[in-house]
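Sequence in, structure out.
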Amino acid sequence: MENPTQQDAGGRITSQEGELWWTTESRTRPIGSLVRCFPATAADTWLSIRDTEGQELALIRNPETLDPDSRNTIAPVLHDKYHVPVITKIVSVTSSVEGKHLEVEVEEGTLTFDITGESDVDYREYPSVQFTDRSKRRKYLIPDAASLDQPSRNLLRQHLRSRGRRGRGFR
C-alpha cells in the first residue's frame, strides 16, 4: 500500500461506464469497493478505498476533503450501500418454506423483502427493531415499534415474535 492516507497528493475518484476508478499522479486503478470504517459511530469519516482484490488503495480521513466531482461520484454509491430504510408501516407478512415475505412502507415508498425467520429480526435495542433481508443483506429499521399503527404492531406480534419475548411490549 503506497501511503494510503495521502489523499491530497492528487487522488480523485471518477466513474467510467459504471466502474469507479482511483486516480493519483502516478496511476489509475479500478475501485472494487468503498468501505466506511466506522459506519455506526463515525459514518461521515474514515472511508477506505479498496481495489478489486480488497487491498486498500487509500484511506480518506474526511471524504468532504475530496474534490467536488469525487464527492458527487461516491455519494450515490455510499447511499445505496449504507442507507437503512426506516419502516413506517408493515403492510403484510406472508410465510413460505424459505421464511417470511414482508411488504412495508418506508420513507421512500412501498417495498418488499424476505427474511429467513426470527434470526433475521434483531430485537436487542427494543423498541427499535432491525430486519436483515435474506438475499440482499440490506438492513431495515423500525426506530420505535410502539409508534407503529395497531395493524402493523399486530403483524409484528403475530408473525415476527422472537423467542423469549412472546410478543411482550407490543400493544
